[in-house]
């Protein structure tokens, strides 16, 4: 199965089992907007809980807030979003399709890599066993020519984008001969800047309505509350403020399912530190966040850091945590050392003093900030694609099993009476009633037991509890483990303890770098 086929299957599976639906689907959907279904919302909440508890409960110097989506419009002038939160946009005059100019160039660059791979495949076929890939890609004239063009395009792209040279971006698109994937023509408009913030009106027109923005990131809600939280919570530096909430970006090209959405959710933490100590904290959060990802057990080699060489003007260090999605290694989380840029800007634009008074040294200063910022939806896609497994069974059948870590699984246990009679449903219902105050459990009595197991595998339920005739005699049930499919007999009275231990976040937390 190709990675593309796998990705298509994931999307189909997420819909078929009630994890994700296209928004307003009966009206043919809304581009890059999605709804979470009955199981999706559970998985999403569990991901959020894993993040929230790891950040706030495990750190006595991190507290949470929940700021409003609407903020005073000056916030976005101060943060730089009004002036600079732009993407370069270009239209094809024939297809009337709109593209991100930098993405068109990136796609062209990716195509060069595909061309190289084609050359490699051809040569490998020709030379058979004797083929030496490393030698081939470093000496073959055709490959070297493609590589040189690719690298030159990459360098030029970085140069014109960094210089905000829109005419240069257009010139590069023309020079590379990039055509519109729809019309196949090179009939392009000029490149323009496009602001990614959504805006709307607040107040009635009679009152003198003013423009407000839907926040494009949650971080600013934290910065403007720095003094409120520091003072009322008597927080001492270093300390952090965490927040989970919706963010909105009018992405020009939204693709790859929930990877790039126009309405999404972020989990952000801003950590306020003494100037001069920020690199040490940056390193700390870099390690901590990576351990948070790896603790889920999907395989350490599927994650990597991508350290940024080119930094935003306000940052002095930045890295991304990347995960190997079916469409390649991509960013899931960003960790940024943002200096005192945000607090200083808000001090300037609001005219308020935003500083921290250090009682020990007797000095006041503007704290520096190290930020960790992760998208809930992107993390959802990461977990979903890592968990999706197709397996051939010994009896020749196939099963799709979602190998969610038990703590994240939407349904923790399914309780299944072997037959719909002889008092078995009553015993099963009683077990459900015992467990349901602490866990999301499902009762299912329809179809054969094998079919019911398959259904629970497909939604990633870690435990199936089967009630049979023996249960009536000795108060025991069979539990079947999702991954190993092993079964064992346990006492009904032991079930709450078993489920509790299985779904606890503790084993994950034990793996975190402290
Ligand atoms: N349009 C989006 N849809 C879903 N998640 C997003 C989107 N934009 C950002 N995120 C998430 O928020 C996190 C932090 O946002 P940040 O502004 O650092 O992203 P970014 O660098 O602009 O992302 P990208 O380069 O992918 O556009 C990202 O790592 C990602 O997980």
Automatic annotation (TrEMBL):
As recorded in UniProt, its EC number(s) are: 6.1.1.14
Recorded catalytic reaction(s): these are: tRNA(Gly) + glycine + ATP = glycyl-tRNA(Gly) + AMP + diphosphate
- Any GO BP: glycyl-tRNA aminoacylation
User: Where in the cell?
Assistant: Cytoplasm
At which positions is substrate bound? 100, 217, 264-268, 371-375
Q: GO cellular-component terms in the record?
A: cytoplasm; extracellular exosome; microvesicle
Assembly and partners? Homodimer.
The answer to whether the entry has keyword Nucleus is: no
Where in the numbering of this chain does the Aminoacyl-transfer RNA synthetases class-II family profile domain appear? 197-417
Function per UniProt: Catalyzes the attachment of glycine to tRNA(Gly).
- Gene3D superfamilies per the UniProt record, alphabetical: 3.30.40.230, Anticodon-binding domain, Bira Bifunctional Protein, Domain 2
Highest taxon listed in the record's lineage: Bacteria
| Similarity section | Belongs to the class-II aminoacyl-tRNA synthetase family.
| Main EC class the enzyme belongs to | ligase
For the keyword Cell membrane, the answer is no
- The species this protein was found in: Rikenella microfusus
Keywords on record: Aminoacyl-tRNA synthetase, ATP-binding, Cytoplasm, Ligase, Nucleotide-binding, Protein biosynthesis
Where the protein is mainly located, per its record?
A: cytoplasm
Q: What is this protein called?
A: Glycine--tRNA ligase
Q: Which residues hold ATP? A: 249-251, 259-264, 331-332, 375-378
Pfam families on file? HGTP_anticodon (PF03129), tRNA-synt_2b (PF00587)
